[in-house]
Fold these 4 entries.
Entry 1:
Amino acid sequence: MARCCLLLLSLTLVPTSAHGEDFTRTAVNSNINKRIKREWIWNKMHIIEEHNGTLPHHVGRITSTIRNPNAKYVLEGEGAGTLFRVEDSTGDVSANERLDREKKAEYHLKAHILDRFTNKSLEQPSVFRIIVYDINDNAPVFVQKVFNGSVLEMSPLGTSVTKVTAVDADDPTILGNTRVSYKVIQGNQYFKIDDTGTIYTAVPDLDREKTPVYTIVVEAVDGHGLHSEESGTATVRISLTDINDNFPTFRKKNFHFEVPENTRLDGEVGRLEVEDIDEPQNRNTKYSFVQGPYQDTFRIEPNPFTNEGIIRPKKPLDFEKVSSYKFDVEATDADINYAYSRTKGSKSIASVTIKVLDVDEPPVFSQPFYIFEVQEESDIKKVIGSVSAHDPDRAKREIRYHILRSNYFKISTKGHIFALKPLDREESAWHNITVAANELEQDRIVPNLESHVPVYIKVTDINDNAPEFADVYNPKVCENAAPGKTVIMISAVDKDEMSPGVKFRFSLVSEESNFTLIDNHDSTANVTVKYGQFNRELVKTHYLPIIISDNGSPQQSSTNTLAIHVCKCNEEGDFTFCEEPAKQMGVSVQALLAILVCILTIIVIMVLIVMRKRHRKDLNILRKNVTDIHEQLVAYDEEGGGEMDTTSYDVSVLNSVRQTSMRSPRMTMENRPCVYSRVQKPPGNGISGTGEMGIMIEMKKDEADNDGDLLPYDTLHIYGYEGAESIAESLSSLGSGSSDSDIDYDFLNDWGPRFKMLAELYGLEPSEDLLY
């Protein structure tokens, strides 16, 4: 019996308690009450993944030292009741499905021993594990399907390119299950791979210009040779990085260019095209002359973007001197790696021919600039200098010259420069002018063929200015100054050129003054007191004339007056009181002219204002007179006071107007009243009919329109027609002024006091009739 028990323990693996220690349990029996030692005799089980046997698979048995026929085994935890089940009476644990270690390698469960009838726990539950054993059922898988790598072209054998990685999901603790090895199955003639997945070059000197990109296929297998056809391979794209290992070559052996001779310096003559199969960053073509003596005439400038060689002239081209150029040019690359370029070919050489085209060019001066000297005040007929230009073309046309914008010089047809007026060095010591040259063809200037040259003329000095005081001196002397007292030291300046040898001499015009002049022989002089004791009450300012002369040829001299003021001084000789001389205010000629112009402008404006005001006044007087006459004539809108009212109208004015009308049949607007008044006639005042009145209005309108001496009016009022229904017929005076009227108006006296005024008016002699 003991031997069977030992065999059972060995099959159920490591008989230990669930908590790694022994413990004592108490068994309750209806007949016997005593303490016995009990324990779990297991803690983990194992099962092989992907087991091919019939389901369910037996995993193990839950065992304990408890011997109770009523005991029941129950599982709790991961997969309990579904993935795993237990035989409640025996404790056998089985798996209902095939397990995959790569999905889950270990399951944790809890075992219970319960009383079958009461479901009470007979022991404390115990945790145990079911461990899934790995088998080599997974092949290595690359982490990505495509890898990229790069390596410099022309690299040596064994240069590292890139690294690939594959992983195996099997248990790494089992030898051989996860060990991955690699091999190149496509492209192995160029690259190789080691067990770490690093790819190396299998051959040296791979050339990018031949094959820029290589595509290889690598395979991964595990330690037992397991391989996945689908995910056990990967593609690797390997790019060769370019290096400067190829010489540039000309696209053609001969280049021909044509260029006009007036092409400016550094202008473009032509472009040399080369081909460099390296990438742009590795192209650095240099051009050099191989044969031909024209390196000083042209230069070749590489274009960094197109790698072309741009030919530019270094000096002016002249068709008449050289009509064509021919030379050889070599294209090289200074940065090329000669270690790898020996097998790439030699340097490239091309022949270049440049034909110069004849162009009608402007004149060319013999010098780029001219400098002449002329003495000031020289004769204007004297030639200052001459410029010369020629036609560079074969036509050799005649040249004419002219000076641009100069008021001091002129130039002859032969290029001789003259002064228009005597030059003054003190006014301007240098004159800068521009001389233009034109070509003539049949005595006409050829357009657009003009060249310019600067000419600098220096005016040299002659001794034509007398020296004068160097400053405005204001000397003072004490009235009690002792003899020999220095009053002031004076010096002189000269507007002429002050050379180091110029000396000035000073002398007095008269020796009869109380001052002495001492020449210091260094272009200065001291003015000293001669006798002393000045009387300030008699003379407050002494004027001392001084002659200043130079040593030039011809000698120049001038007399300058020095005003010396006598002042009161104290015992120490300090000035205590001096009358300051009035300061002279200098005004320039330009300022005087400006002031005069302003004054004249103000006077003209004032005269215009006065004339305008006077003109307006005359117009107002004229308008007032005309208005006054109108008022006297047209005041019909007010009823007078009857025959006793003699103040409403100035009869004398009416008489004077009537007499004037008798003397002059046609009156002007200045001396006759207007017959077209603005005052409206009261309505219903004896108008006989609209037709008759309409004809009269039209007649008066025609008269007003055709009379150019009358002022225009917007309205027309007629008082020369009264109408046929008036008892007294027409009473208007507008038509009663004719000298041939034989009507006697004495009957107005019989009409009563209302017509007394009319009787007096119309009772006058014919010479006194009024034109009303």
Entry 2:
Amino acid sequence: MPQTQVSLSICYKHITFIFCVSCVSSGGAAGPRLNNNQLYKFSYTTEVLVDKARGSKEGSAGYKISSDVDVNLVWRDPSSKDDQLIQLAISNVRIDPATHRSEKKNILHGSTAESVLGKTKMAALTKPFMVHLRNGKAKAFYSFWAEPATIKNIKRGLASLLQVQLRTGKVVENDVSGRCTVEYKAAQGQVTRTKNLETCKTAESGFTTHSQVLGVSKKSSSVTVFTLEDGFIRSAVAEETHSLAVNARRSAAAKVVSRQTLTLVGTEAGPLEAAGKDVTGVVKSIDAKFAAVGIMAEKVKSQCKGCPSLFEHWQSQQKQLEPASLSKATAPRSFLALIQSIRKASKDEILKVLKSASKTTLPQVVDAVTSSQTEASLDAMLEFLNFTDAKGLVLQERFLYACGFSSHPNERMLQALLDISKGKFGSTDIKESVVIIMGALIHKLCQKGGCDLPAVVQAKKLILAGPDSTEVESEVQMYLLALKNSMLPEAIPIFTKFAESEVGAYNTIALTALQRYNVNLMTNEVKQTVNRVYHQNRRIYEKNVRAAAADVILSSNPSYIEVKNLLLSIGNLPHEMNKYMLSKIQDIVRFQLPASKVIQKAMKDMNSANYNRFSKVGSSSAYSGFMAQSADVTSTYSLDILYSGSGILRRSNMNIYGASKGAMLHGLQEKEFRSQGLESLIAATPDEGEEDLESFAGMSALLFDIQLRPVTFFKGYSDLMSKMFSMTGEPMNVVKGLILLTDHSEVITLQSGLKASAEFQGGLAIDISGGMEISLWYRESKTSVNNRGAFVVTGNVTVDMDFMRAGVEVSFETEASLDFITTVQFSEYPFLVCMQMDKATFPFSEHLTKYESLSSGKSIVSRKSKKQLVPGSEFPLHQENSNMCKKVFDSNW
């Protein structure tokens, strides 16, 4: 008998040796196997740290949970040794700061795990739980439904650490993080598990800004290293990192680091394997209250004890949202905080704030409520606003613009605008804005793959058929502007058709819309149409229209022949148009824009580029330059000026672009069509194609890729005269309000079972106004476009476990202004025109806040700030303008 026992012992050891080798071979066990009648004793530590992206562990906020863990085999399928039911029991729980702290900075000083957790949670945490492993993969997780979600998630994190594949390869598996693609690499006695976190599918979905320039980038990694001995886990060390950064300023970044360490301390005699035919029966025989609750983490509802209600929060913030404060950073900061509060509020709570706000703060409340983009906030706005009331124009337009700028609109928001468009309006301006903003929502929903949603299909049908459904000029323009916002490929034939219309406004909208499309969509038919417009092959066009056509040609990957024909046209154009085209060509070459290479090639032909063509004089110009350059984002500006032959400013077009990592954002376009049809006032002769134009001055703005409703300064000779004599010089508002530019929200389920919430928001308080002063006495006019703004971005990463909370906030803010002023002296001929684009000195500050708190109310906060003043400057335009400005200001002096 002893001999038999020795023989079995040798055989057992032999099997164990083969199994260990199988860690790196194609045979043997699929996962770790436990022995019957044996208790495996582990030490377990899970810690979480939050900090700025480049912060050290020593300075991080966070905490560490340590415990002992007993593991034993409960049941094994007789037909498969890799089908096992395992029990785990946590004991001797300790909670400490993640890093060494002085007594003063240690909120856990004098606390025990039970005092922090509470008796109920501690009892739940130390209750045994079970995991069903088959071939090393978790097939079921058994615990108690009544346990708090936070506790069950911690247990899931520990159970997931036992999940390991002993062979090299990729696999999709479920664990606490969700359903993820995982790659295993096996070596002698060691397995490395790398989880592709981008593939993880969870029940909790977040949202992010559609614009990459204004958005947030995330980098994540998760690696677990298993050390194996005798076919079982000797140790498992997991480290997971998530780093989030604002694309426009990557130093505004925060990270969360999660670490788990499971180490086998020893073994001792344990309970015998339970009898049973299957897992379910065995689990019920042990405790009927055990339930298969799923290995994936469940949602945790955070409860804010002592937090103010929405109304209380509004009362504390309303002073910062008065119109006089909109140019200060306190306005967007309060705006962002109010959005966070509104997102947790009910419809009735939101309506209470809307109804209690003063007349001066109400427009800002409308911005915040609409930007919150919750079901309750949209319901509240639709109930609060009356679109048949002409007196409510300001609030109605603020609501519509906030819809247009929304970071993650849904189908219901578009459906709401569709329903509104079918009703009656107190103002035609609001009707136009509704349709124009519908186009913007169509574009954003299509970007997210929602082009086939019923509301999107219905709205597309409306605006695509719109231009041909009416003969009213303002309505045709409305539908064309909506299509311009929608960026629908189906709209290209419509724009191509209207590019050759007999109405100058239609031409200009159609051509500027075509310029926004991807070059690959510019077919030969489109290009031929645009070239016909520029070269006036079929009819005579206004200079505005021809200039817009030239912009489309030069920005759509022009061919050598197209460029050569443009060059050959210089010298045969109206006087100021010659100078404008020459300046445009030179600016593209100087600023090395995409068309510069083909232009330089064409300019080698002396027939195309010679002194006769390139010596044209005039006041019109085109100039591009850099506003700011950094490693994160490059901001450029361009200013195109076109005069009439009589010296009257015909068009100015200022653009500001932001570029980051290959993505482009059209931040601002202020396009003014001024002094149209005013030649009779100075007894001048209109240019070709402009003889019958009605007196008109207006401004069209495109803000953050959204075309807004154009603003008219005057239309018609009588309107001009009445406004000229009643003009106060007060600016006319083009757009004013608070805009949510950056909006990123997600819940990150960590491998440990803890959850980190990441909230990044960027708010802009903006005031764009345009004004016009005309003095017939002094024979001088001054037109100004004033841009005032304050920008705040905050990023919060918080790990909240009910009983303990740790987090970090990174933020930056600035206040800036940009003025574009045009002074015209018409006391002599030709007119003296001076343009200025000034940026005032502005403050810039960055802030870092780290915080830890207990449910008892005990907390600790640390703050750091860095502030600086960025000097102002006057942006260079072109040399002729500088010369003109000297004459204007010398004569004023």
Entry 3:
Amino acid sequence: MLLHLAAEFDLQRDVGPWLAERGWAAALDTSENSSALRVVNVERNGKIIYTWKGNQRDTHIGLYDLQTKENEHLYMFERDLRIISCSVNSERTLLAVSFRQYTEEERVSRLLQSVSKYLTLLIEIHPVNNVRVLKAVDSCVRVQFLYPVEGRNTSTESRLLLVSEDKYIEQFDICVVAEEEHKVVIQNSGQLPRARVADDLIWAQWDMTEQRLFYIVPKESRCTLKCVQFYPDENFNTILESHLDISVTDTRVKLVNFGYDDCQDQDVTSKSLNLRVFTSKAGGLCVCCSLASDIPDVVTYSIYFLHKGYSKTFTVSLERTASHQLKDVAFLNLDYYVAAYLPGQFLHLLNIQHPDLLCYSLFLTGEDARIDTLQNGSIQSPLMSTILDGCIGRIYAVSISDSALLEFLQKSKRDSERLAALHCALLCVRSTADLEMKIIWWISENLSTCHSFDPIQEFIIASLYSRMCSETHNLDKLLPYTSLLDWIGVIPGAVCTTDIISLPVLEFQNSKGFWEKLNSNLESVKYAEPHLHYHSNVLRREWQNLSEEQKEERRTTTYLRNIFENAKKVLSHLDTWDSEERLVPLFQEEDYQQQLLMGLMVAQLKDHLMRHLQYVGKKKIDQIVLDYVANLLNLVHRIMKEVWKRYQLHSCIFCFDERGSAAEFAVFHIMSRILEATNGMCMPLPPGFHTLHLGLGVRCLPLHTLLHYIDNGVLHLTETCVRKLLKDLDDTEKNEKLKFSIVTRLPEALGQKVRQFWNHPINANFIARKYVKLLLEKLGSRQCSRPISERLPVPVEFLPLNYLTNMLAEIENQGVHPYEKQDHVNVRFVEEAALKHTMMLLGLKYS
């Protein structure tokens, strides 16, 4: 099961023993009355209010503190009442209670038509003292105390929200004073001051954590969502307004998080508006709504991503089931995800931060969608990553199980499911070294089975995004989170339609936290968010141009010096992270091309961030960029390290006189895919990667395949590897063929450095030919003016060779010497090489 539930509170476990100790065991007998002991509210500070029936059928209200694990008796009514709503202030001096006095049948039978059906009371409970009637009406009323900022000193004023089914919400201001013996009483003996908060609403939801009120008012054929923010200074104001294209046929008021009904009442309200508003820490704002469907066995629900400016509507065909088993879709807030859950049918995890591509949302059915401990009744999400099961009075902390997610990833056959699971594991689940290792193992086994995406690219990009974006606000809008540009796949079992919606209007000043992040998200949408993400196209062009210009020596040394200085900082920064001996032989040599790419990436990414994060400061951006590129190199090394360990390879550089094992060939294949992945994203590799890759290629590949890989740029000839190959291999016929094939493919600059390590006539002949060619190219149209004699101790009577050597000697005397760093390569070297080669062809022995 993908969702892991841990019971943070259980009425039977946490309250039952306390009640039994005090002689209220009757409250635990649920056989006759399932609502004898039930949760009625959860306050902001984690305190849970519950009610139970006493031995004399009196009604009690208690409080459980999640932090101290202690129970407290708050109040008792000496009669059997149906508690509708209850709330206690943060100082626990006042208790607001709304209850039903009589049912309609009871009023008629007892001739109590003049008595109101519902009563709302304000009670002094420190100690129990006066009781004040706030409302005596025939419509249901809910109550909720506002909570000040946590840690604030005790206040002498409390504020209470009163929500009526008559479609209005008002706020009461209650001043209290402390009398003798710490007694706290309400100061005003007259009417309490009140203020109207909202009118004409048909739906309202209380956000206890952030002290926000969301409510909906109908407007012609549409609905308008509004949000009122309550502040610690006792003010409140409407901060958000958004138009929603939701048709409402049932005008009864639906209230969310204003107390909790048990599962019996849930059926009564199942036909009313099933809607939830969820926020995320990153500034996401979603409206989740389950829509009525005229087609049997079909469920339709919509998610309005207000922070993105579009909505997605999903239509799901259900498996055949008895009608009484079908319930409304339950919506759960998991921060990074919104979950749509229909027990026994499906569990849909929708990515809030990146909802544009469906492949980053998980749609589960069957056993994967089952949540064992939840009943098919009252499921609500009062807090982020929290589930309340009202039927059994249990509150769960909900999280995504990393083991279940990994199991799902391993058994998935569809690319969309693999992508969603991979991103969920890397971006949402708290990544551990063990989880990361298992993901790398899965990637190494499935490189050829993922057809629509590259798992190595996604691993690197998503891991970088996860590691970096928590550091700085708005960085998540500037760094790439995927290598994919689009996704044209579908969700099996669900049909999705996307609609553009109007962006919400915000009205706030100097507001921090969520509203600032939401406003930043909306601004990103206005300015075409996809174009804000860093892309490697510019880097690729600059790297290619710079590589070409370097060959022609056209770029200024100052610019190149800065680029290589950037690379030096990255490698130095990386060294401070890992002081242990590296298992994989990387970072042990210089790699000009990779350092060039490193330095360019630092420069390009710095320019990109400076354009959009000007308020952060240059020093901070420099640090972000260094961290990003160093983390990139470290991730490649991390992949190599886990692969190295899994296939039990040694850390030493390979010997070329042995053929590679099956394990080495598997690692070579993985390294080829890493190279392909990084080339596709124009990302640098750790210095030494190409040397290691070439070494494995020499050991594992037949010669024609090896040369094919070199010619097509899969394998790169490096000085370290070629030098070792030329020095370590003896000159058998097979090895001579390999060496000569390698030598002839070396770039000129590299060839001059390493050919001297192969003392063989073939190599000498090759060097001589190259030397002659270069000298003749330098000669141009100039003619020799005088002969130069005595090139060898014994004159050679071979006129063509004498003429050539004399001409070359004259060019040398003019100051032309292509191989200045190799003094032994001169005209005499050419002469000796020519004679040796001729004698060898004639089958004669040269002395």
Entry 4:
Amino acid sequence: MAKGRKGGYRVEREILNEERLEELSQRLDISQTRIPLSYRLKNSLRCSVPSLKRRVVSFLPVLYWLPRYSIWDYGMPDLISGISVGIMHLPQGMAYALLASLPPVFGLYTSFYPALIYFFFGSSRHISIGTFTVLSIMVGSVTERLAPDADFLIMNGTNVTAEVDITARDQYRVQVAAATTVLAGLIQVILGLVQFGFVGTYLSEPLVRGYTSAAAAHAVVAQLKYIFGVSPIRFSGPFSLVYTLVDMCALLPSTHLPTLLASVVSIIVLITAKELNNRFSKKLPVPIPVELIVIVVGTLISFYTHLNETFEISVVGEIPSGLQPPTLPNTSYFSEVVVDAFALAVVGYAISISLGKTFALKHGYKVDSNQELVALGLSNAVGGFFQCYSVCASMSRSLIQETTGGRTQMAGVSSAVIVLVTVLKLGPLFQELPKAVLSAIVFVNLKGMFKQYADIVTLWRSSKIDLLVWLMTWASTVFFNLDMGLGASISFALLTVIFRTQRPRYSVLGHLPGTELYLDMETHKEVREVPGITIFHSSATIYFANAELYLEALKQKSGLDITKMITYKRRQEAKQRKRERRAARRARREAKRQVWGVFSVEEEAEHWVYLKGTDPETTTLGSLSDLQDGDITTLESSSEDTLSRDLERVSLGSLGKWTWDIHSIILDLSPANFIDTVAIKTLRNIFHDFGEIDVDIYMAGCQALVVEQLEQGGFFSDIDKERLFTSVHDAVLYCLNRRGAGALPNYETAAVSFTDSDTTDTTYSHTVRGCM
């Protein structure tokens, strides 16, 4: 690019359209030959030793890093990290089991088996697999829906007592939770094997944060009965949270004061200790296990003061020592929990992969999203056989595992060993632990989710659409329960995407002097319009939902109401054809008169009608007076003169202000990543309709996939491929070359010169001043 005279510039390069680009690709041998599907399928089924090894290692990532594991470098950090995480597993496992409406010991099982499975199949080195608040609440909603307390009331003759058969109820709920977990695990494994790891991307951050905030509300309401020592009715279905909260408020006068006192003291101690932990975190080698200390102290106080017998404070109860043998899940529950299982699979994976990618980015390794689906699915499916419920990565435990120096999943194995020792030897020691203490632990651990309500202010300032997604997710999850809320929130989030693509920003681009850039003229004041050329840009792809809006925006931005113009032109063409028929008839009558010299009466009447410029077949006597004087054609006017005036009347000039200032429109399709049949039809209509009023249409910036879809849709069957250009600048150069300065009546300083007049050479050198 070189400077020209008086602020212009000269461009000496080849103008590239799609045909020229294909020609160069073939000449330089850089075009990619399409590989037949049969060959690709055959190649994918080939099995060699290296490919088999890669597939086995990708399926079992432990085979990659375990042979390289250095005990001296990683052993001690992983051990310290594993002990720290294992200590957190104990209180969280028992506390979150209450959220799932299961006996606390099953929370310990859930903290043990899945962590071992993930050790072999997981690709993240830092996440801690086990119980998590949101999934525990989701499992609890399923167990309480299918196994409510009302179904397990003890019958005594004809009287029904208020006592619930807790053993039968818990056993049934464990079966429901195990079946749901196995089904959710199978869904995750199947999605991972078919490469559906991207499914988590449909859960945006505002959606996840709004969903977890609403889940925290469910968790709080679920724990109120343990904190206040009352027994409200637990409802299910839409507005169940509201009904439960109303019933809870009605029972407040019946609050059990010793239980409330134990809860309040535990909450105060936990909050104070955690704040001190955060303040002195940099000075402490490992965080103080506050939750475990509170559990131990609470158990000792309850044991020695007999809180259960003396003050009727509810305690954990019997905790069996040892592990449960594996059992097959009851598949008859699958049909009743399939929706809940899918929700558990998607939410659990979204939380785990987001944490895994965060730590992988920080420490410089890669997490395979599909393999994470498989690993998490196997952890759930295998764990379900051992009476575990759904698991995912825990943010608090993962942060502890990473900050205490954990390097690999050997830390997860160490934490599982801590849980195993507790289940085998120490479990019965926690039988006197008050449930109020576990509820206090859950309540305090929800503090991070309560802080997410600050997102409302942040999103209000940054993105109103994301705020709407957050609020809609929160409201639908709170009022329509967790499973229905997730489906409604995902649907709403997708609708916002469709809405934003259906109504994108349309703009006219102008040229930035001294460059090949074309920018929005409304937002960039330094750009200049290219006279005679309208460059139309859409911020989104064109598809069936916005194709008609695209056409309407093009009409508005170009100032050409193509519908009215074509209607007007076709009317003029119809009038022209009618005048041609009239002129032909007059010519025949004139010839006949000259031969015979007479008219019949009918011919004479018809002759005078023609003098008025009307059709005798459609004109009545009363309508003759309505004709305008300008329509009278005398016999002295020759047929040639009449045709000349008629043709002039329907020429492009007769359209006046609509067409003189635009001769070319360039459609910038660079944002389009696909195109469907509706959009192809719309583009074809644009080419044809604007062509009728002598406005040339060109396309620029199409991606290879879009060009391929245009070819498959038959777009180039009646439209020349030379109208498709590599860039907007190439299209502008072509328009200026084709139309020249003569086509720009209001652009006196434009000049175009050619270095080679040969039509086969498309290398142009032109100087353009004023717009460039």
